[in-house]
Amino acid sequence: MDDAAATVCIGVVAPLTGRLAPLGEPLSFVLRKLAPHPTGFRNGGRPFRVRVAVRDSRSEAQGARQAVRELAQDEQAAIVLTMAGTQVLPAVTDTCEQLGVPCVSTTCPWQAYGYARCGDALGSFRWTYHFAWGLDDIANAFAPVGTTARTTHRRKPVERRPAGQAAAR
Q1: Would the pTM of this model clear 0.90, i.e. be above it?
Q2: Cα–Cα nearest to 21, from 92, 83, 111
Q3: What CA–CA distances, in Å, run from 48 to 38, 53, 85, 126?
């Protein structure tokens, strides 16, 4: 990459601490593996270097908002990537929308994402984009599992008793 290349910052808001931290572990792993391998791209023949800046949402909405502000204002992030949490994810995307920073989010059902943000799952947003499965996809994928899964143990039939009578032991 050319020494005169401009640098583009990609901001990442991820749950690195707090109750959602296990969801951020795979992303942290990938970022650690990519860090030693600087990369870049050309646009219209002009070279650009890529720098990734990561901020911890602390698994809470206020931490997520602060992370976006730091990425947008201190790091000059050209885009923010985010994931995880029905409270955290909308906080990131709403803050990006307010600051005019492009944002791509994932790992939250699209219905929960849309309804949490504006009461309309298909609401239009200028700066934010979300891709993920929906609740209907989850139901369609996992409902058949319950009917087709085999088990090696059998349950006893439930004993029906008149109300108020305890089971004999």
Answers
A1: no
A2: 83
A3: 11, 16, 32, 25
Fold of 6-148: Rossmann fold (3.40.50)
Under DSSP, is residue 164 helix (H, G, I), strand (E, B) or coil?
A: coil
pLDDT digits (tens, 9 = 90+) for 117-148: 665 555 677 888 888 778 788 788 877 777 76
Which residue do the tokens 């951020």 mark?
A: 24
Cβ atoms within 10 A of the Cβ of 92, count? 31
Is 40 exposed, middle or buried (CB count within 10 Å of its CB: 0-12, 13-18, 19+)? middle
Going from N- to C-terminal start, the domains of the chain cover 6-148
Report the candidate in 101, 137, 100 with the shortest Cα–Cα distance to residue 13.
Answer: 101
Tokens for 108, please give them: 């939250």
Phi then psi for residue 99, to 5 deg, are -90, -10
Separation between Cα atoms, residue 45 and residue 156, nearest integer Å:
72
CA nearest to 46, candidates 101, 7, 102: 7
Whether the Cβ atoms of residue 79 and residue 72 lie closer than 8 Å to each other: no
62-117 pLDDT tens trace: 999 999 999 999 999 999 999 877 788 889 999 999 999 999 988 877 777 776 66
